[in-house]
Amino acid sequence: MEVEPTGGWFHGHCSITDACRMTVTQRARTGRATTDAVIEVSGLRKRYGDVTAVDGIDFGVRRGEVFAILGPNGAGKTTTVEILEGYRKRDAGEVRVLGEDPANAGLAWRARIGVVLQDATDVVELTVQEVVEHFAGYYPNPRDPEEVCSLVGLDEVRRTRVRKLSGGQRRRLDVALGMVGNPELLFLDEPTTGFDPKARRQFWDLVRALSAEGTTVVLTTHYLDEAEALANRIAVIARGRIVALDRPGDLGGRRQGLATVHWLDDGVERVVETAEPTRLVTELAARFGGEVPQLSVHRPTLEDIYLDLIGRRGDADVAEVAGRDNGSLGGDAATERVVEEETA
Amino acid sequence: MSTVTSRPALGSKRLPPAWRIALSRGRLEIKVFFRERDAVVFGFALPIVFVALFGAIFGNEPIGHGYTYVQVLVPSMLVMGVASSSLVNLGIWITSDREDGTLRRLYLSPMPRMAYFLGKIIMMVVVGALETVLLVGVGVLAYGVELPPTGEKWLIGIGMMLLSFAVFGVLGVAVSSLPRSARSAPAVINFPVLVLYFVSGVFLPYNQLPGWLQQIGAVFPLKWMVQGFQSAFLPDDLALSWPTHEWEHGRIVLVLLAWLVIGLVICLTTFRWKDRRHG
Predict the structure, then answer these.
(1) Structural domain total, chain B
(2) Is residue B117 a part of any domain in this protein?
(3) What average pLDDT does this structure show over A299-308?
(4) Residue B13: which residues within 8 A CB-CB, separation 6 or more?
(5) What ipTM was assigned to the predicted interfaces of this complex?
(6) Which residue, A209, B62, B85, B132, is the most exposed by fewest CB within 10 angstroms?
(7) Is residue B1 part of a domain?
């Protein structure tokens, strides 16, 4: 893993990051629906031979939104995004991106979108600056190439040949080339794969800053924390279908989800799933007259919900149940679990 | 500096003109070509080295009319130079452009599609012209090769140069779809070209080939290019190494134009912006 240059991607410009973080939070909280749809997809299908990669997908993305497509490898994320970019042809369904069908959109449309490539190894004999300047020349309203270099943290290697960049720096160059045209809509396909944790945080700040100034961002990822940190809405995709689409806090009924309260009652482990954990804990506290033995309150994490949604839970059912219940298999009363539904 | 500046009003400007992007791509391609040292050494320098080498070995062999072997060698090496800077060069580089993400990036950008090909053409012509000057220069300075004696012969030489670039250019784009990967491209593309050098009169006089090899050679454009370039550098009564003992300019033009059309059709029907794995 490369050593990131000191300072990072936003050398002392926390103000903008904070500002945009606020915007994002605010937007997420109010769920303000800008009626302006940047992407509209309905009934999208794509097959490769016998394999159905995308099996009837519907969603929309609003202007200014950070929209994450989250799913395991092979779920159909990349295919979906490539169809939206106009790189791949669809078999069925309606797609509008920035008001046009990507399958026959022209160069003026292309100038309005930006794509960050995932695994490019091109332009290796050119310097960072040469490449960014060259690609800026394709667009009617490009950003200043120098500014782009410093935004993505490539200031110190501007005169270095791309061949000599570290893996992380190379990815940032791809980000630079995706944004140099000043796009209204930016596609990021698994952008932080291979980044170290610090580089990921810095990349997130960059995405937030772009979003804050109004760029719509479509992001595919298989990292939950990335989707949760960046996205206004998340579409979870598995086996070519969207299995959930919501704000990160509400995904899979997370907000309404039952909390699980554990405690030890007379040597017996008790587990209660309840919508009102506070009330239960208050009652327990009164009953025990203070400290409740081994009390814990657990809400499903996004990861729990995600695994449920993509069906990994299902696949792992046997193992998981066995793991959870192995205490009771021995018939040991002290660890016996009693799961009771609260009827309140 | 690091604040993300707010975006100017949308649609306030038009797309940059295609010619400007094409020129910019041409500049970039030339820069990249001369920075790839392997390509420069093996593709670019080889014909020049051959002129120097063969010149040193056979340079003084008379071929009649007071001319020596180098006078025949230079037009042959010119064909080789044009072939390597266009056909081989494009075939290999486009394959690697397809594999390393260049074509994907360009396809997704607002670059006019033609700008990519124009950029390659600019690179090919600049590299080829430089090749020609160096190659002929070595022949003239080191071995006393005589330049075409008349204006008419100069025109023939220049015409052959342009026609050869055009034919090899489109064929280069056409063959770029053949190799399965950039790694195999040099072998896949050099192999047939090398064979063609031998059956087209580049290394050996055409009239020394068995008849059936001559027939094969005559199907492909290289033989006709060698013939055409020789006609610019040699007097007309030295056309003896060719079956009809004539330069056959009309037929050369016809065959090369036919290959140009074939090449264009192949390009238009088989050129892929996408990698095989991107279907």
Answers:
(1) 1
(2) yes
(3) 81
(4) A140, A141
(5) 0.88
(6) B62
(7) no
